[in-house]
Structure formats: C-alpha cells, structure tokens
Amino acid sequence: MASFKLLPTLFSILNTNPYRKPTIRSCLSHRRLNVILQPSQGGAKTFISRFAADEPRKGSDILVEALEREGVSHVFGYPGGASMEIHEALARSSIIRNVLPRHEQGGIFAADGYARASGRPGVCLTSSGPGATNIISGIADANFDSIPIVAITGQVPRGLMGTDAFQEVPITDITRPITKFNYLVLDVEEIPFIVKEAFVIATSGRPGPVLIDIPRDIQKEMAIPNWNKPIMLHGNASRLQEKALLEEIVRLISQSKRPVVYAGGGCMNCSKELRRFVELTGIPVATTLMGLGVFPCTDELSLRMLGMHGTMLANYAVDRSDLLLAFGVRFDDRVTGKVEAFAENAKIVHIDIDPTEIGKNKKPHLSICTDVKLALEGINRILEKNAAKQVIAVEKDIPMTKNIDNASSTWRKEIEEQKEKHPPSYRTFGEAIPPQYAIQLLDELTNGDAIICTGVGQHQMWAAQYYKHKHPRHWLSSSGLGAMGFGLPAAMGAALAKPGAVVVDIDGDGSFMMNIQELATIRVENLPVKMMIFNNQHLGMVYQYEDEYGDSNSMHSYLGNPSNQAEVFPDMLMFAKACNIAAARVTKKGELREAIEKMLKTPGPYLLDVMVPHEAQVMQLIPDGSSFKDAIRGAQ
Asked: Which of 60, 276, 387, 550 sits at a 20 to 30 Å CA gap from 434?
C-alpha cells in the first residue's frame, strides 16, 4: 500500500463539515491501491512546452500541460463556475481537444468508452457541486469494471471551503469508496506531481478511476512548475517470481480430464497469450461478460459467455470440470450463482492482479497474484519447452511420461454433444422482429468486427449472446454497476478513440433515453455512431422479471403512453430529427436486413428504431442464488 496521511480522525468523522481546516492533500480509497511502477501510457518521450522554463503561468495552464505530457488528446468537459479557468486553459492548448457533452454523466461515460476502446485513460472535467455529483455513477462504473479514468472537478476557493458556499460539495469524501485514489489539491506546486501520479495509479495494477479536485483560486494562482519531482509509490513490481507455481499449474493441467478456462476482463491485455495457451493445451474457454472478445467466439474451443445469462454449454462445462483455470476474474454472483455449488467438483486455479479478489468469493486450490499476461507468458514457455522435449523424445524413441497433448478427446466430444443438444434458441413472433435475429444479422453484416456498445437490460444480454465477439476492446458495456444510459455516450467515446472503426450502440428504448441528449454531441462532432434501438415500449428486463417472478403487473415498466398504446411513444425518430440525424423505423422481419445495411452504409450518425415484441425474453436464465441445474432454458 502507498504511504499516506490518515484523513478520518474521530473529530473529522463526527464533524458534519469535512472541509473545516483542510490540510490533507490526498485521500486514499479503502479499496485496492496496487501499483506497478512503469511509464504512464501515451505520454510523449520529449515534450516542448509553449511556456519558457522559468515563466510563471496559471495553475490551470499547469494542469493542462500536465495532461498534455501524459499524452491526453481528448477531454470530455462540461464547464461551470468552478472550472472555467481550466476550460480557458484548454482553449489555449493546441494538443488537447475538449469534447462538450450535453450532460456531465454523458461526459464521464464517454471517457469510459474512450478508455475501454483504446486502453488509454479517459479524462473528464466538470465543475463543482451538481457538476461533480453528476459523474458519481460514471466513477462507480469505472471502479466496478476496472477502467482507467482521470476525473477532474473544479472546487470552490480554499477560503470558502467549509462555509457551505454556493455549489460546494465534498466530492473527495463522497467518492473515496469508489475511486482507486483521489486528491484535493491545496498547493498549486503539487499539480504536476499529482497529475503524473494520478495517471500511474489509474493505469497500473488493477486499473481504476482517480479523481482530482482543484479549488478555483489554485487554478488562478501563478507558479513555475517542477516537472521532475519523482513519484514515490510502493506497489507490486511488474515481474513474476512464482515459476514453481506455474510448473504446478502445468502439472495440474496434465492430470486433468475435464479442464476449463474461465477468462474475464483481467485478460483484456493478454488475448494473444490466452489464444496461444489454448492452442498449446486444447482447453475450452468460457468468458465473463467483461471478458467477451478476449477469446474469439468463433473458435471451436469457445464456450462463449458463462453465468446467469450465459450459454448452457459454458455453464455445463464449468459444472462438469475437474480443473477450473480462472484468469483475471472475480467470481461475482452473476457468474457463480449459488457460489458453493459453482464448479464444486473442480480444483480451482486463480490468477489475478488484485490480491483482494483472491479467495474473496471462492477459495482457490492454487493462486498467483500477478498480471495474467505475465503468468500466461510463463506458462506458455513451460508448455513450449515440454512440447519440444516430447518431439525430441519421439525422434529418438525415448519413452516419456504423459505431458499435455491437448485436453482429452473424450472431454471435447462430451462438449460437442452438449453443443448439439443445447443450441442457442429464441422465440419467434411471425413477421415481428426477434431482437436476437437482429443481432445475428448485424454480426453477419459487420463480420463480427464492429465495436459494440450497449446500455443495460435485455438488449445488453442479447448482444452478449448473439454477436460473435472476436476482438478485445470491441465490447463496451457497463457490467458490474449495470448503469442504464451507458451505451450512447460510450459509443461517442469509442468513435473518438477509434476513428476508423464501425461503432454500434445496441440499446433499449428505456436505457437510450437516459442519455439521449448526447445525440446533440454526436451530431455536432459528426461521429459515425450507428444506433440500433430495440424498442419494445417497456423496461424489458423488469417486465420479464415481473412476468417470471411477480404478478405480471407491468404498470411501472411500460414506457409508452397509457392513453394511446397503439402509437409508438415517444417517437425516437423525432428525437433524431431534432438533432438532424438520419433515422428510420423497421417493424417487419423481412425488411430488417435492408434497414441494417442502410444504417451501416449511411455516412455519419444513424438511428435505426427496431420495433420488437415486449414478450421476447432473455434465455438462458439461472435465477438469482441458484445453480446451473436450476437454469430456465430454451425458447419461451
């Protein structure tokens, strides 16, 4: 853990005003702070300042140059009274471009999408008070899903802190439980150091959000920055020393008859190494919602998604496994269900960079706390060395004990039988459009290469189940927090991070409307975001749960106009028209292919309103707290 000054004293805990007599520069989250000391991503090797070395400049200009030195090219900033100085400094920058969202939540979700798609930190900027509190959901989302974000908030001047000044909110105290680290800047000379440290913390170890709160008077204060102050953080080093444990993993694999890989978001930066591992061992792979794309769904050894809404095949394989290789995962409840029944007959190997996750929900038989990439590189070297020895032995006719010659054919045959027995299926409704079919068409027409963003709800699960994800960082979805309204602004960020990519926001009408104002940003920025809205006039997942577990009373999940249920309300095409975005509605299955083709071929943004039956459900489904054996399966 990093050394730090302890903020909460008995006095400050009992004191209703946490800003009285502010003396603490930084606030440490009670969550993990694991840091690998290495250069931050994207920063230039040499930097030419627009200021002379000994020239005083405003704190806001120091902040902007610090961001420039970290390689930041886009900031998603919404201005206000406490952040105007920073926006003025951004306007003086020739390197950073501010993208103006139409709501602060849209800004932080766009920064999140930017980070997920690029692997680089996303940066957002807000004012104090409501501007700062509007990004809390985005911070929580990044914290849940381990996304590197640097969130910068303006604050009232130091002299007003603790007086309940206009738009004064103790944002560092509010966000401490959901940030990896946060700062209250009380000295202008610390800005270069704080920004540098913030980017190291956000991107190192298990990534996460970092918040920097800067009072307005510090933004105005003149200073000469020191860019060379060293960072002193104690953290886990970027190396792997447990070679004996890696050899033990290889031994366990060689003895296993039914091994399965359970891969999550922690494998996002080691897709290549994971594929090589599977090539060497022939072990089938199940992925989490966060892990979609780290192993291609099109591979014959892919079991696809695991968990509550995962495939019967993936859940069956894990239930039957005798060795579960858990790489970069946290055994969350949406994967395990009834945790004591999850992989109950398997030895569990858990590799994760966050020590707090190992043994938290499921006790492993063998664990290594390290970067999964380093572990897989080490395991692959052992496997390749053993394979080379076997080749030599065969050539020289030397008898050897059995090593890994791919997972047993009996196990793979069993999996193939289950694949045939439980193919993906969904209910059809005559000429009405099944949403699953729409996603299958989109996958076909984009060859599985699009960056898919989603909101949260039924459409999210259908997109996870029926799009054949082939690439890491092509699936952007709020997984742990489950924040509705994520899809549209995240697609905005992804389009800026990957300007040549096809970016599609698959959304539900309820989730889409939560940040629908970002249509204006997308139009002004002319971002080629394609929006495929599954419009069933309901909060679909809530309706499904009401139908499955409740009394089927959908009064509070119906989003249309109760007095005229025959009309489509609200009219998504009118929202698009208001922002001068091309749009169309499709209601029949036979017209869907042409409609999607037109959406993909039309330059710039496009909204396709796909009317789907509200009776369509997400299947397969393992009820809360249940096991694989309790799954509700098949088309209903």
From this structure: 550
